[in-house]
Amino acid sequence: MDMNLHHPTIAMQAEPMSREEDEGQWLRCARRGDQAAFERIYRRHSAAVHGLAWRLTADRALAEDITQEAFLRLLRRIGGADPDRPLRPWLNQVASNLAIDHLRRTLRETSDIALPEPGAIAPEPADCSEASGLLGQLAPIARTLVWLNQVEGWSHQALGRKFGRSESWSKSIVSRALAQLRDIAHPGDRHES
Amino acid sequence: MNPDPIHEQLQSLPDLPPPDSLWPRLAQRQRRIRQRQQAGTVLAAAAAFAGVLFFAIPHADLSQQPVPALARTTPATRLQAVDHALQAAYARGASDDELAPLWDIRQQLASVELPSPAQGELP
Lengths: 193, 123
Hints:
- The structure holds 2 protein chains of 2 kinds.
- Chain A is mainly α.
- Chain A folds into 2 domains: 1-111, Rna Polymerase Sigma Factor, Chain: A; 112-193, Orthogonal Bundle (Arc Repressor Mutant, subunit A), CATH 1.10.10.
- Helices cover 65% and strands 0% of the residues of chain A.
- Chain A has 9 helices and no strands.
- Chain A has helices spanning 8-14, 19-31, 35-57, 60-76, 88-109, 130-135, 140-150, 156-162, 167-185.
- In chain A, helix 3 (35-57) runs antiparallel to helix 4, helix 4 packs across helix 5 (88-109) and helix 8 (156-162) crosses helix 9.
- Chain B is mostly helical.
- Chain B has a domain at 33-110.
- The interface between A and B is medium-sized, with 38 and 26 residues.
């Protein structure tokens, strides 16, 4: 019989830790330079951060750069990160801000409220689902606003402020974009909203 | 709850894993950041040590009193040590916040009257 199984400390360690507990532990270890701990954090969150960056930019290289930068910022500020708070919202916020900054820079150079050329949006790397294909039909600014509002839960007020515009500007773009998506998804089935 | 099917479709989109090549790049950057942080710690310790040496030695009485072996340095050699630390800091692209204390120490050392070569080394 393995005596270790009855050792109280071992038994406690054998109990599965909650997501938050082990993430906090990984963060503490990563602060001390433990690369394996940082890799665990990366493995847990990278798909979500990359997915978000992809949906906001529809640009493979840019989504990768944003994901990398979000984790690098975590590394640089790891000493100040609170191990008792979940990392995902912070990482998502950083990725969203990076995507918005890029979009704002692009908007200063070009006016892109119009629809992109057909085929201009790269297909998703893995499964190109119907909804994702729909999203690709939107102009960059509309796609970003729709995703942040409808999926990430940003308010129109926050979106307007972030882009240096008004709340109604965000509302109007999201509303038109959603109507456009409904038309594409269900042609002939007009929504009056 | 938003009953809009478009909203639900968007919400149901899965996460997208980044390419496998991203982690090795990130790990390399992590090592570099770690090395830089360690170099910064060493530099800060060196600056603190130089500061302790500077303030621990009564400069006016150096020629009259025997000094402990650890502190048996001249203002010139201490200045040289701080210069090396500054050079190293600039070489690794240290921030102004890291450089400022070194410059302060250098200024204080430089303000001490250095013995001329003719006066020779300390006894």
